[in-house]
Please model this.
Amino acid sequence: MSAIRPVKRRTIRDIRAAKGKTPIVCLTAHSAPVAAILDRHCDLILVGDSLGMVVYGFQSTLPVTLDMMIAHAGAVVRGSSRAIVVVDLPFGTYHENPEQAFRNAARVLIESGAQAVKIEGGVEMAPTIRFLTERGIPVMAHIGLLPQSVNSQGGFRTQGRDADAARRLVEDGKAVEAAGAFSVVIEGTVETVARDITSTLDIPTIGIGASVACDGQVLVTDDVLGVFTDFTPKFVRRYGEIGAAIETAVEAYAADVRERRFPGPEHVVSGERS
Model:
């Protein structure tokens, strides 16, 4: 028997217990190698439908399919061993009715091995969240700016700017908590509103463009690493310049190939007999 004990993956209970304590760290991943790196530092890894833009080059998250999410989620689960893996349910896969949401959420968990799903919406999605959680599917909720509803929300606009909008967001938070969500993402929301929601709820809040007072933070890893050099959202702090590093490496490789400096003698088999 091996003396090495298997690493225990964090649980939904662990995340719930983190409310008001050391902030929860969350980043996105869509591949096994990236997941393996994030796993050493993150409490949660989100397989976000942002992959539609950062992986597939779509203009929004709307074209993302369930099959795409399952394939990438499986890779992230295989690449990680500590962090909880949460998977976005894409647009149109849970809006029709709770039964549709359950079928698709169950398929995600069964086929990918992930631990939870994330769905967008507040009061209007509370019955669906309750339906899922009562049937054993952990749900991370998502309120505020909803990328899947970008058309109906009038674009990527900060939410909660007036008193009525702020009140509705607080009600959204209360509704998803009462429905059984184990945590809630607050995106693109006025800072004071996100702070109020966090102090009101007993479940952890995960901020993205919200407030430092949230119980955790999430960002798209490609933004954090500077993969894209043409645009950085206001709420992102870059911790690397990977895009520039890739450019430099590819430029050097291309030059070596064109000048016949690669491959060198050390990279080929000479064919000489010993």
Residues 12-235 form a domain with the TIM Barrel fold (CATH 3.20.20.60). The mean pLDDT is 94.
